[in-house]
Amino acid sequence: MKIIKVCLFNDKNEIRVIDFKTSGLNIITGASKRGKSSILDIVEYCLGSNHCNIPYGHIRNYVSWFAILLKNNDQEIFIARKKPEARSNVSNEFYLSHGKKIDIDNILYLEENSNQHDILSFLSQEVGMYPHITEVPQHQTRPKIDINFKHSLYLYFQNQDELASKKLIFHRQSEQHMPQVIIDTIPYFIGAIENGRLSELEKLRQLKRELATKKNKHYEINSLIGDGLAKGNSLLNQAKALRLYKGDGYIKNISVILENLKKIEEWTPSPLKSDDNIDQTENLDKLQKSYEKLSLEKRILNSKVVELRSYALAVDEYSTSKNEQLIRLKSIEIYKKTLENTDNEYIDLIRRNLLKLEQELEDSSTKQPRISDSLNELEKKQKEIALDLKSMREQINLIRSINFSSNVKKEFNNDIESAKIVGKASLYLESLESVNSNSYLRNDIERLENLISSLEQHLNPTNIQELLESQINFISEDITKWSRELQLEHSEYPIKLDIKKLTISADTPKGRIPLYQMGSGENWVGYHLVTHVALAKWFAEQKRPVANFLFFDQPSQVYFPSDKSTKGNLNEIEKDEDRVSARRMFKWLYDVCKYELKDKVQIIVTDHAHIHEDWFEECIRDVEWRGFNALIPLEWYQS
Prior knowledge:
With 639 residues, the protein is an alpha/beta fold. It is built from 17 helices and 12 strands. It has a 5-stranded antiparallel beta sheet, covered by helices on one side.
């Protein structure tokens, strides 16, 4: 995977495009404050970084979307990412398009169709990353890392501060937790962790779970059986004490023990024979039946009482109502008036109603005593039944509370103990039969232990470390060779990449010299260059799942302070040896790309220097960024 274009879109959908070649050395040269270094930040941002280090100013003010066009095998990938909103570090709005050929000019409008998670998953798949989660040693609390494309970003970039650092080798190494992330993930990218290790680790966990289950089963069976002869004889002795077994002495033959225990297993408790107990049981049954019958009779009687009380209440209410009517009619004393010569039909009607009411009241008054007598009779019977039920309950409870006779109780307890022994014998027999019929369990345990041992040996982290050291040795050979070509200090000795300490060191007769103990900015820049080019070469040749480009920002800074230069010419460098070293560095980058990396790795350099030689001129991309030429076109912010 390499970079074809870096694109900027403004709010008017105007596009600024910087083209690159996918092989060889690509140089963006120009004066300071033209946005050269920002190209690195833009590419990293578009590749799904958690940070946006694109500087504020013209770039953020006039660009709405940042984009890159990538080439991966025979496919082109266009990724655009919206600039962060105010007070936000990043945006999660992405635009993704991919196919055989992507025409930037046909992209008229950018609209979110993806997000950071999906972009990283897509890129991980495109470079061929296989699943892997880092392993954390016991007693260490750092989180495991589910490796994706984002974790490879530290391999591609070297900004100005990092490139000239004597303490840092990798991009973002100075950030909190990042050194450990690099240490944990770089063995994967280099190739010390094989494809399929994650599934093999899961297989190992499954085998261990299966082994634990079978061992627990085996332990349970053995603990139940114990020592076969001792356990069997102990059970027979317990059975003998309860008259379930009549043998004597210690039996040394397991078959005889099993035969006797099987007979004991057939034991059944004898029924209780006490006549007293039988009589009491019969009496209890009779009483319970009588109690149930009388309880039913009581419920029926209760219903009758409720109905009769309701009827009595209704009759009483009726009499009261009629009596009130009679009183009202009598109060007008119409029946005392003598109207011999007056014919009044209303007076006759009232008189007839009075006579009717008096008759109804007389009838109801005769009914009330009869109702009262019936109710008293029923309530009396209620009390009698309640007393009978109470007496029966007391008799039932008395029978239930009577203890068995001493013989019956003894016989009952003996049966309980016998049942316990029979249960133990059955469990013992089942366990012994289980071991005999499942002897394959021990074979399974042995088979699983062998598989686990073999897999653990294969997955031993020591093997990873040994393989990693061997691979680092190959990479370090190129580092040593190229450091000599650049004539770096201590390069007469073997130069070694130290992954554990994340540094470069020279193995001298007097001991190892790490980069931070070497002098001169020229050495620091030089060792950064050769280290990352050596890694990129290894990744490409070994077809590792990473992108195949490198980004170096301002490698000439140690020779070529931009504040004293106007055009970036080598003759502006004061010291002759520095001019020679600066040219040697760029010529080495050109030659290593052309003759060793060939089309495998793309190197992009943003720098102040401009060497007026054909080999350098052919590497310059875009125009030289001096005067009004810069990353952001003049018309974008002057219109």
